[in-house]
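re: ur question from yesterday

yeah so i grabbed the chain u mentioned. its 335 aa long if i counted rite. heres the sequnce exactly as i have it in my notes:
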Amino acid sequence: MKNLVKNTLIAAAGVLILPVLSFAGGKSIYGEDDRKDFFQMSGDMQAVANSVVSMWKSASVTAEGSGFKLQTMNFGDRLNLCPDEKFREQPIGAFCSGSLVGEDLVLTAGHCVKTEAQCLDTKFVFGYGVMSSGAEAVTTVPAGSVYGCAKIVKRFLGGEPGSPFPAGQRLGADYALVQLDRKVSGRAPLAINRSAALKNGDGIFVIGHPVGLPVKLAAGATVRDFSKSGYFVADLDTFGGNSGSPVFNTRTKKIEGILVRGDEDFLDSPAGCTTMATYEQTGGRGEDVTKISEISASIPRLAGEKAGPEELEIRDVDSSGIQPVEAASRTLSFD
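ran it thru and got these structure tokens back, copy pasting raw so excuse formatting
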């Protein structure tokens, strides 16, 4: 990740109480930028997006009346974006994304909640999006859309103690399963794929909060390399802030993985402003997605979900009996 973006966002955080976006490497645009706002999504995609959550520092979610106000900044102004950059005038503020996979369980990236203390200082906010054409992004949400962290159920991040990868080298799987402070109301948990694996060339899409923007759908992507240990590589249009976003199978609409790493986000333009990094559809390094099989055994099955013959060895896990990870004094920062 270029220092340009890092320094810009750190300076912004000095003006407003906002987190530094969470990255384990940048993300970027491949081919056409076909990201869509909530109001532009089809009805079935909106139903999925309703269960995707944005993650905020607690200080950025303040009580206001019967709900909460999200503290944001202007995307274009804070990153000195060029005038024609997509979503330039929208707000940013969320630092990671996640998905509801149980009545009180959120799936995200391990580098989004590094410690128990950091998790407890995080608010999980549903409904942060541009909900209708011509409308402003929702930045005041009802109390029923805001949840806290009760504990980290399970977490892994390559490069940390216990990982097979060298210290500081974030390869392989990167995931966290978080139990919220109460059951989520009015939103359905999303199904995960517990059986047949993806293969190269399969269609996928991602829903999340790139750069902390209101929720976006990025479709038209495919699996590039499924042979990696613990993760696969794809040509998804994603950025920092998308970390933790659920990646779905285009055909089944089931979660196939968690967006965790990728290519450069932004580049310096000769005009003196900042532009989004764009590659040919087959170019760049690609984006890394933790395989859902790395964490699926710890996600309880949904009501009516049955085990197939190929997965009978997987047993349901009761998250209430899992002890939280030991807290450590680490802070959220760029990598």
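noticed a couple things. Residues 161 and 167 are 7 Å apart (CA to CA). also The chain is about 10% helix and 30% strand.
anyway ttyl
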